[in-house]
Amino acid sequence: MHLTETLARSIAQTDYESIPGAVREKTRLSILDTLGVMVPPSTLDQTCERLAELVVEESGPGRSTLIGLGRKGSAVMAAYLNGSFTHVLDYDDTIDDLGHHPSSQTVPAALAVAERVGGVSGRELIAAVALGSDLGARLSSSPTGKLGVDHRWFPISNFGVFSATAAAGRILRLSESQMINALGLALHRCHGQLDAVAAPESELRAIRDGFINKEGVLCALMAERGVRACRNGIELFFENYYDNRFDAERLLSGLGEEYRHGGVSLKPWPCCRLTHGYVEATRSILSEHSLAPTDVGRITLVVSPGTRDLFCEPEADKRAPGLSIQAKFSLFFTVAVGVLRAPRIADFLPENLHSPDVQSIIGRLQYRVSDELGPAAEISPATVELNTTDGRSLSCRVDDVYGHPANPMSDEDVIEKFRDCLQYARSGTGTAQADQLVDRLLHLETVQDLNEVSDLLP
């Protein structure tokens, strides 16, 4: 079966009108959402500030926006910096069933190349992001066994270069043959070690998408210039990384008709998606029974062995995370914040990681492993048991976490999230500018030249 050829042909030949309207609409919202979450890291994260300095030094002149910096750079370095910013807040969209983050792998690469090329329409950006995101979701869903359990590669980085390459290549209007070469080049740039990303002292999980988008843009630009690579990059990928333990039918089924990232979830809170169900369940109990934080005696989080290993252990580190990105990956920290209020960006800033109020709640949290949930870490169901100080035992189970397609965020909440992110821009974004930007992005399919959007970005 010619997997690479089939996928490359679909990416190169599928036009905007052929993409289902519902998928185009979700992609448009994901582009708005992703551009928003890129903004705050330029002012809130020390590592990102260092990366910004490095990019400004190394980039030189260019036409691609360096989000949050109020300046331009080369497409390659813009894709790197903007990609690095997409996951720092852990606020970017996900496909819950896969644990996959589609837009962080495609929007930075596609936008950077679109600005480099010039004259690219909003429709072309939507199509590029939709096709690149679909490829990433298909790749993620194809290995047999559990990602992160049966396979030790970090799947987001491992599959992401193909997604970014496809999105950038689509903006460049690569032919089928050029797209095959681009995917072959992407094979050479796959990376991602799960243990290195999950290490408590590591910041790689926060900035991982910078590497993905930079390599994707480079692969697409090289293919455009005529650089040739192997013609079976996808086949070799599964052979070399997954010992051919994958389902080819699952990879190709419904190609061009069913878009796997159509099941994307937008995130209402800036923390790892798996924590959201537990935060939501806790807040639902508090709201339903009109409880204050002082009424909470003990909270038990019912978890799978995989969730325990990734989000509750090592327990000392999870109860007192030293890095913002690790706090977002801790059930203790995120649920404790959720007891006090709906989690917000400021709760995860370094100076707030040791808040006495949060630590007081953390001291009342424990977890219980349920083998009925299976071995892996899953976003749902999320069950919380809460004992009040007056002796009541209450519980809540969440199956469709807020933001999931079955329980989607309201447009008002999506726009409010976007506006909140803009407040953290270095140069500031006035109300009129923010209004214009929101309007352009909500009607992206009518934008004839993306400079109408990029000129409004902070």
Key attributes of the depicted protein:
6 strands; 2 domains; 60s Ribosomal Protein L30, Chain: A; two-stranded antiparallel ribbon; four-stranded mixed β-sheet; 2-methylcitrate dehydratase PrpD; 458 residues; alpha+beta; 22 helices
Main sheet properties = 4 strands, mixed
CATH architecture descriptor name of the largest domain: Orthogonal Bundle
Number of strands: 6
- The low-pLDDT segments are none
Structural class: alpha+beta
CATH topology of the largest domain: 2-methylcitrate dehydratase PrpD
Strand content: 5-15%
Main-sheet strand order equals 4-3-5-6
CA radius of gyration: 21 Å
Distance between the termini: 46 Å
Which CATH first-tier class of the largest domain would you pick? Mainly Alpha
At the fourth level of CATH, the homologous superfamily of the largest domain is 2-methylcitrate dehydratase PrpD
Total domain count: 2
Describe the structure.
- The protein is of the alpha+beta class.
- It has 22 helices and six strands.
- It has helices at residues 3-13, 21-37, 41-44, 46-59, 75-86, 107-117, 122-141, 155-171, 176-187, 194-198, 204-224, 233-242, 248-252, 273-288, 305-312, 315-319, 324-327, 331-340, 356-362, 411-422, 431-442, 451-454, and strands spanning 64-66, 71-73, 296-303, 365-369, 382-388, 393-398.
- The protein folds into two domains: 3-268 and 411-454, 2-methylcitrate dehydratase PrpD; 273-398, 60s Ribosomal Protein L30, Chain: A (2-Layer Sandwich).
